[in-house]
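S1.2 Input.
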Amino acid sequence: MNEQNFTRIPHNCVLNLQAVYGTLKSAERKAADFILDFPDDVAGLTIVDFAGRAGCSEATIVRLTRRLGYEGYPELKVDFSAIGKNNAVYEYDDVFPGDSPGILIRKVFEASIRALKDSLEMLDEEAYKKTADVLCSAGRILFAGIGDAALVAQEAQQRFMRIGVSSYFSLDTDLQLIHASQLEEGDVVVAISHSGHSKPVIDVCKLAHDSGAAVVGITNFPVSPLAKKSDIVLQTAVFAKSMTGEVISKRITALCVVESLYLSVLFSRGAGALAVLGKSNEAVKGNKA
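S1.3 Output.
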């Protein structure tokens, strides 16, 4: 993917391109590559001209624009025509061994702040509301994740447990599978994977579906295997780079998503959940003295 022209492409369009580029078919990739290579030309082209220069069909362009979050090609053109007016430049710089401590901390904070803002813009409010409703009425909730995503899943399970929700998590992937096999209709799995390719997590989702449970996927990639196995997808938008290939910002965004869901369920369940939370807080108060 040509990243040199990102600053000349509407920011949300860049985020969506990054999210779906690896899954595009050859014809769609030709259209995407044309956008990446010639962003300044897009606003002035008819769909016929675009198709001719990109070497693809008009139908392919329409499919791509919808995958990028537009209703169609005219909306894409409007967005590109406004690029000079309202498009801020956001860059995620790699960290380097020679960076001073001040530069390092600024890069880490700025990448995380941008990831949170991008994810908030990307998040589908209807999907979020549907997830909150499903969790509020769930009989049991299983949180699934591996690696550092497991830390997010563990935190989520502990938050929901504090308000009296029957919730489960285990660092042992075998136990995650066992929990999933015992779920029933009315139960929910919340599966967390930035890439959407974590096989143990996807296996949990398969078992959950076989058991009749609903699956909510929290992932950065809307056409990943996890997204395809999910009934509801909550998409984050973290594309920060680092020399290690791992950035904490992808987990900060996921933590904010589960924290928001926790609060939504807490307030929806009302006085009963608040009373249980009070008992939970009282139970551990001695450990915090």
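S1.4 Remarks. The chain has two domains: 6-86, 116-283.
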